[in-house]
């Protein structure tokens, strides 16, 4: 398949591009929309908002999710907030500035047109959510409150206590359920997409496994939307929910959708450190905490005292020292790497030495405990639940953890993948965040994609192309159902000696050590060998008891792991190919004298969109060259 | 961190509910578990059980979980007779083993209510709660039409109270804890949130009438003021939201808007 990447980005002044593009798109007559079926896989912010909006417009929508209710998608866990360029605080914000900050924050690896559109619709999102009854934080005068978030010098983040994702998702879920009542949307929970039906070159349906009965079910449609989230769990330990997985996206990749920039992963700086080998996931402490907490490590190596016993002159507020301009609010990639450097140098704290402190002592002294409790009460409570320590009295211990994946399936300006009729939304696409996402911008992007972009661009498929009627008796459905079934039966029949859990943990260690925060050519090559060997071991030695004709959590996990084992090798290969450091991708070989990321724009100012060939064989690279007309290519500096 | 806690390990006896499907009869399986670190979460302890089962060639115990940080509302266990276990304002996934004693016997069951049939083992079907929301738990506004978000100021106390109600994670613990298996706290929280906000006003009557009607039709029981729901609620949703729903219901019945 010799395919030319066409981003379909409009030209002309950037402020007019989205409006002009929408005008140029074909329309579907409201009376006809009901005749078109749209499959939406995923019920997080991106999926729920898309399914609800398309239902309102009159399309017949089928919405799938793994959980027992769409309201439980991983988006529910987002804590900190959502950005918008409202400029309510009158501190100089604008669409232009949000655009600029996002391109710069992404270290110049995102598409300008998309980022501008994102900034442009950000304000509509807030209006929409407030109208739905999302209880954002307010000031005493009754107006909406804003706070600042990592990487921004303006307060543009809207929040609902520490539960912003929950409130936004419940808003979208309400809108979704309203369409269920209206008969426009059918919600199909506890279903896992296992393959995509590509018929005559178009995405025309999916096969899912019913996670209650174990049966395979087929659904045909005129377009398929994937909003299945990110693949951070390839690291085993991450802040993602346990069911978050790459399978739907990976199966689409194997059917021909290009996958872009898999190595762009975000490691979040403020998570609760690992406490032992039993650890099953990591918990994020919202980055908003960095507004009031001060980050420090030990000044000397070999510090064994408890953090609260370490005197002031033996603490090193290294972010304030190294980045006086942004201090504790530097972007995530910068903060995470700085924490790793401190711990690698032996300045870490606590029993493992793999932690730095986030200290509220000064903020409590200044504003009082009540003020801090009002802002972060539930986060402090969560920290205490997990660690048994009271953060009002002793500093929090934090360490970076895998959090978000900027990479994902490649999409054009219409959010359409390289398979016509297959659209990718939210964290699952290769996104508008380039090589690093700014805090509070994922929720914004997910909702922008679902509420505002896809309702306009889906017509590229619905009205823009002709196609024959297809139902689930088409032989392609039988073929892909059979291949999914065979694969699961194969997993069950290995009957080896090792659990999927232990293989997944080992994969996570390889990824964290060699494909995590500090990457280099030798380590990345070694990682690819080790992952390939581990994949072999999976297929020859995994042990998954039971059968597939009912709910079997062991099988579900093993099947997702099998995909992670393919994705992981590909991920490391992408990291090896990108011989530069940018955003979340840091190569030891490419750094400035003072240890900052060294981007190599001459060679790498492109999105790497990979075409799948065969498992274990290199993918084919297609470059989407990125040009920067509005934000001048410059080295990021937060000093 | 107290230094000795690092090495604390527990040996436990577990009585775990196992049930092959909605129509099968279930029973308790007794299992011994050694060397459980007190730093583990309750679900990490169950992960250990499942690792043991796999090594014995048996299917793992099905239990619902996802976020493991107390927000998605998936986890849903009754531990030693208590919904979400012994700690107040704590979901099952946030409960840590430091709250158990060495040698203890722990009984683990699914949330039980007529409206929540067992799917398998500890997994239940809570779609009845979705159907309550479907009947009216939202504000009917289409994408794209709203005015500016700051056009209608909302008094902070109202907005804060609405947020208190909106914090419900929909786990259904209130139903499982209630002797009548009522869903009043769940339904009340949503009715109350939307009744407190000006955006909710146009559908104020129809919303409460339909939601209450659906709640009854789904087989949830009635409230007899036991307050068990609030005690079990991991988000400490207050029973005053039930009172507000009752007032809203009375008012709507008098105003007489049909759903
Ligand atoms: C702890 C935490 C805190 C965060 N805080 C913030 C924040 O403050 N601000 C911010 O902007 N961002 C934040 N993020 C990031 C943000 O939450 C996510 O990027 C975003 O919510 C992703 O939304 P989504 O709709 O793309 O996918 P998700 O919410 O991950 O939803 C994925 C959906 O796809 C379904 N699915 C997956 N695979 C399949 C399959 N094979 N078949 C069927 N269904 C499938 C799932 O069931 C689910 O419904 C945070 C992330 C984490 C982990
Ligand atoms: S697993 Fe999400 S609330 Fe417990």
Summarize the structure.
Chain A is of the alpha+beta class and 639 residues long. In chain A, 37% of the residues lie in helices and 14% in strands.
| Rg of chain B | 21 Å
Structural class, from secondary structure content of chain A? Answer: alpha+beta
Which sheet architecture does the biggest sheet of chain B show? 5 strands, mixed
What is the total tally of β strands of chain A?
Answer: 19
Largest β sheet strand count, sense and barrel closure of chain A: 5 strands, parallel
Instruction: Choose one word for the global shape of chain B.
Output: elongated
Per DSSP E runs of 2 or more residues, the count of β-strands of chain B stands at 7
Number of helices of chain B: 8
How far apart, in Å, are the first and last alpha carbons of chain B? 55 Å
Q: Specify which chain pair forms the largest interface.
A: A-B, 88 and 85 residues
Give the structural class of chain B.
alpha+beta
- Helical run tally of chain A: 18
CATH class of the largest domain in chain B: Mainly Alpha
CATH topology of the largest domain in chain B: Fumarate Reductase Iron-sulfur Protein, Chain B, domain 2
Into which percentage range does the β-strand content of chain B fall?
5-15%
CATH architecture of the largest domain in chain B: Orthogonal Bundle
Identify low-pLDDT runs of chain B.
Answer: 1-6
Give the CATH superfamily of the largest domain in chain A.
FAD/NAD(P)-binding domain
The N- to C-terminal Cα distance of chain A equals 46 Å
